């Protein structure tokens, strides 16, 4: 059994890819294709081959790649390898977001954990080794609460817990999910329906038993569209089977039909058919080919291995080499001349059910479906028109072709050259002259006239011979002509348009910003002039050119437009350095500028020669440098709102200097993050796939004050966030300015350890301890201060008492000193008086003769002498003197014991600073004797000659 399964697998793969060697050249030149974006293996960082594709409910795309599972969220690609590094053959996603993958001898699912990380869970341990040996899982279908894995050998049914192996009557080609039904293609037996894990043959489908059924999808409520690998398409209705005729039948039968999908776009249903050798076919319900995409028209590879219609009706193709994205719902369809035979398209026109293209190689035409705006055949060169075509213009159902070699009229009969004047640049109708046309050429202006229904060249206008690319008449009948290389002319023509009556030149000296590339156009029923820097208008009162301030301000960057084309009186095309915008006017006011819808054109038009032709019914042909595009004007694509879409947070990581870790993506419960991990990175995406990358804005509540500017970067990093509560807000915006809903993520940065609750509790305890300690110290210090205060107060009191005592003593001393002085003065006066009396008595004694009298006088003289030398007086003096001079005499006696009482008395008199005369009177000696006593006293006191005796004695008391 195992060997048989291995051989069957090998045979299947061999035939599956045998079509790579087949070639079937088809004519695809006539088909218009939608925009295709290629993703190379270098973009998604995987292998070449992508075997299957699916989309999750959140919009994320998944691809089964030879290197594993690839995820794309619109912003970044991620590759997840299977445990055994097997080739991923199939992929499917359930409503819970589980991504199921099938591979060689392996199947299981990827699931995100709480941190957004993908984790793989294998399911092969739930089946027997024999049933999975040498088997690849080629298809996975999710229906209700079950997942079905299909290999060539059989089908496995998984209910979330157990796997049941479903018996099949033969090998299985593929498994189909049709609404709420599962249908199975069984080799050589037809179609079966799988119900309650049992297979039931669909009646009538056994007619397809010889065929390999690779495609099955609803055609209507009752019918199924069945596609076989090489037998074409069929319609199956209950038990009836019929061939479905279609325009691609030959292609389908020869290119190995492999995958299919259906989509409804613009009210029309389309069937998307992927082949092995001929790329992708898009058929409508009538079997007509709407589009055929191959490597020649934009695909990376002609082998389609998987097709997925996403939530916005875009197509995703998993290819044998790469991944392609097709904007099937786009308003643009393209015809690309990859051969280079057509050349660059300068102009176009639809005339008599043919599409004409004027290129630098000549005039080409092809049959055109005017009702469905599509080509019906190949382009061919119109005879005799090889060379540069500048302009195609319809006038009164006549097609004019302005050519490098002249001007032609195009009809069913061929081409008619009506002018040999080189360079038919610009053909204009003359106001109020329906039978006259004027044309700017390389060498001047040409007049064409119509007579008897036929147009012919009449003449060249005399007096003006400048190369003229653009022409416009103003409301006064003046003809404004832009020189091909320098400046602008205002021409006044005569009545028969044969010559120029007056010509005024305008260049940089006349007010324009420059001379080069000045063009003239009609806008809002008045003439405007473009310089590539700003628009100008003509002031008819002042007869000068002046900047068109109001319009320049409203047009913003498109005031620099170098070309303006009129759609009608209210709508215009503006071109500015490769950019295109549609400008809408309403009642003379600018209503809207739409430049976003035309970003696809940027870089694809020919600078300076851009051209868009109105085909009618809101269809426009845009001339490109390698073909053309058909644009369907639906008013605005801004109606594709993003309100119902929400940005997905793919990953949140926090890190410190030493570690990095992912955090939970739970949007419901705020997350707490350690302060050491306060560096946060957010990764996000909005899986909406449109032309132009999504841009993102974010704002961190609690940190940011405003939303960030929109940028394409889908990551944001915050460093060293302070502790606190935060809410990270992120939203997306597309090229049209539509905003998605806001995704919020709440988290808290915990305080550092030193600010934690435990730390704060410790701080509180420490604070209380410190407060207690402070109180103890404070009271201790206060007690010491009180004690010091009391001691100080006591000392001050004692000092005050001492001071009072000293003051009292000082007063007493002063009093004693005064007493001494007074007493001394009294004694001095007394002694002086007694001395005088003694002297008088001595004189009187000379005259007394009587002895009694002499004796009496002698007694009296003794009495006087005793009064002069009274010891009592001296004792009183000593007592008072010692009190006043702190025992001066006592100290002096102790210091100099050899001093006599007379010496001490003499010292006292000297200390009192008495004069020699006063001392002599007190001591009852002569002044000369006083000096002698001074001399002797100095010797007893051991004084140097230069020392002052009085000063010495004064110092003795101080000591």
From TrEMBL:
Residue span(s) of domain HTH luxR-type: 896-953
SUPFAM superfamilies cross-referenced by the UniProt entry: C-terminal effector domain of the bipartite response regulators, WD40 repeat-like
Annotated GO biological process: regulation of DNA-templated transcription
Keywords: Coiled coil, Membrane, Transmembrane, Transmembrane helix
Coiled-coil ranges from the UniProt annotation: 827-854
GO molecular function: DNA binding
Name of the molecule in the record: Transcriptional regulator
Highest taxon of the lineage: Bacteria
SMART domains the record matches: HTH_LUXR (SM00421)
Transmembrane segments: 758-778
InterPro entries the record matches: Ig-like_fold, Sig_transdc_resp-reg_C-effctor, Tscrpt_reg_LuxR_C, WD40/YVTN_repeat-like_dom_sf, WD40_repeat_dom_sf, WH-like_DNA-bd_sf, Y_Y_Y
């Amino acid at each position: 059994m195992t060997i048989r399964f291995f051989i069957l697998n090998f045979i299947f793969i061999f035939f599956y890819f045998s079509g790579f060697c087949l070639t079937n050249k088809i004519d695809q030149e006539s088909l218009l294709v939608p925009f295709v974006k290629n993703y190379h293996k270098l973009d998604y960082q995987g292998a070449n081959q992508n075997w299957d594709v699916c989309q999750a409910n959140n919009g994320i795309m998944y691809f089964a790649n030879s290197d594993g599972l690839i995820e794309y969220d619109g912003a970044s690609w991620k590759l997840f390898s299977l445990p055994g590094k097997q080739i991923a053959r199939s992929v499917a996603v359930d409503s819970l977001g589980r991504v199921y993958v099938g591979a060689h001898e392996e199947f299981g699912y990827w699931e995100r954990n709480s941190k957004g990380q993908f984790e793989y869970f294998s399911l092969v341990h739930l089946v027997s080794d024999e049933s999975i040996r040498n088997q690849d899982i080629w298809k996975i279908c999710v229906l209700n609460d079950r997942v079905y894995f299909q290999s060539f050998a059989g089908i496995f049914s998984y209910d979330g817990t157990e796997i049941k192996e479903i018996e099949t009557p033969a090998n299985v080609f593929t498994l189909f999910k049709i609404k709420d039904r599962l249908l199975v293609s069984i080799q050589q037996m037809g179609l079966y329906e799988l119900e309650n894990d049992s297979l039931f043959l669909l009646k009538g489908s056994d007619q397809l038993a010889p065929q390999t059924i690779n495609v099955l999808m609803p055609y209507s409520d009752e019918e199924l569209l069945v596609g076989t690998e090489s037998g074409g398409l069929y319609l199956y209705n209950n038990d009836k089977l019929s061939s479905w005729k279609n325009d691609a039948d030959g292609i389908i039968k020869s290119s190995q039909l492999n995958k299919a999908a259906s989509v409804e776009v613009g009210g029309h249903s389309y069937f998307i058919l992927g082949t092995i050798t001929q790329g992708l076919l898009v058929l409508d319900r009538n079997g007509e080919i709407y589009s055929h995409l191959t490597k020649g028209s934009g695909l990376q590879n002609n082998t389609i291995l998987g097709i997925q219609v996403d939530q916005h009706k875009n197509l995703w193709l998993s290819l044998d080499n790469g991944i392609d994205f097709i904007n099937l719902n786009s308003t643009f369809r393209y015809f690309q001349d990859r051969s280079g035979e057509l050349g660059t398209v300068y102009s176009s026109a639809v005339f008599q059910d043919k599409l004409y293209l004027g290129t630098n190689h000549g005039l080409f035409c092809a049959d055109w479906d005017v009702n469905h705006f599509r080509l019906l055949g190949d382009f061919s060169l119109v005879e005799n028109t090889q060379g540069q075509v500048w302009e195609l213009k319809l006038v009164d159902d006549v097609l004019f072709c302005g050519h490098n070699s002249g001007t032609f009229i195009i009809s069913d009969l061929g081409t008619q050259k009506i002018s040999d004047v080189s360079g038919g640049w610009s053909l204009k109708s003359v106001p109020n002259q329906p039978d006259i046309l004027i044309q700017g050429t390389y060498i001047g202006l040409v007049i064409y006239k119509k007579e008897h229904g036929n147009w012919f060249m009449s003449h060249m206008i005399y007096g003006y011979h400048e190369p003229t690319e653009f022409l416009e008449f103003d409301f006064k009948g003046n003809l404004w002509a832009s020189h091909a290389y320098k400046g602008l002319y205002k021409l006044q023509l005569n009545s028969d348009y044969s010559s120029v009556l007056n010509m005024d030149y305008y260049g940089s000296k006349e007010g324009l910003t420059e001379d080069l590339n000045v063009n003239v156009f009609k806008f809002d029923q008045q003439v405007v002039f473009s310089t590539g820097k700003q628009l100008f208008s003509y002031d008819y009162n002042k007869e000068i050119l002046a900047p068109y301030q109001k319009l320049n301000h409203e047009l913003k960057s498109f005031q620099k437009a170098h070309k303006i084309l009129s759609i009608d009186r209210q709508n215009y095309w503006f071109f500015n350095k490769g950019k295109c915008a549609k400008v809408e006017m309403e009642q003379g006011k600018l209503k809207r500028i739409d430049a976003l819808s035309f970003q696809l054109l940027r870089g694809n038009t020919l600078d300076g020669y851009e051209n868009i032709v109105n085909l009618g019914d809101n269809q426009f042909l845009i001339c490109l440098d390698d073909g053309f595009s058909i644009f369907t004007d639906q008013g605005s694509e801004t109606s594709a709102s993003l309100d119902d879409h929400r940005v997905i947070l793919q990953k949140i990581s926090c890190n410190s200097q030493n570690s990095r870790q992912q955090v939970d993506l739970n949007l419901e419960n705020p997350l707490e993050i350690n302060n050491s991990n306060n560096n946060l990175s957010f990764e996000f995406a909005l899986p909406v796939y449109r032309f132009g990358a999504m841009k993102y804005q974010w704002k961190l509540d609690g940190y940011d004050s405003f939303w960030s500017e929109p940028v394409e970067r889908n990551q944001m990093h915050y460093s060293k966030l302070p502790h606190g509560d935060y809410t990270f807000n992120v939203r997306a915006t597309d090229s049209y300015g539509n905003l998605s809903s806001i995704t919020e993520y709440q988290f808290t940065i915990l305080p550092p350890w030193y600010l934690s609750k435990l730390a704060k509790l410790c701080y509180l305890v420490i604070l209380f301890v410190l407060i207690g300690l402070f109180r103890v110290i404070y009271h201790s210090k206060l007690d010491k201060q009180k004690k010091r205060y009391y001691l100080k107060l006591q000392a001050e009191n004692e000092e005050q008492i001492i001071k009072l005592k000293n003051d009292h003593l000082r007063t007493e001393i002063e009093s004693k000193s005064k007493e001494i002085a007074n007493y001394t003065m009294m004694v001095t006066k007394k002694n002086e008086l007694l001395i005088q009396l003694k002297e008088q008595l001595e004189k009187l004694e000379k005259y007394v003769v009587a002895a009694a009298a002499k004796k009496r006088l002698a007694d009296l003289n003794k009495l006087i002498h005793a009064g002069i030398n009274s010891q009592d007086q001296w004792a009183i003096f000593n007592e008072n003197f010692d009190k006043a001079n702190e025992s001066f005499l006592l100290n002096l006696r102790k210091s100099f014991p050899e001093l006599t009482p007379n010496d001490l008395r003499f010292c006292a008199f000297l200390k009192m600073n008495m004069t020699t005369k006063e001392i002599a009177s007190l001591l009852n000696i002569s002044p000369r004797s006083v000096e002698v006593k001074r001399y002797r006293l100095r010797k007893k006191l051991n004084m140097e000659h230069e020392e002052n005796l009085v000063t010495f004695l004064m110092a003795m008391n101080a000591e």
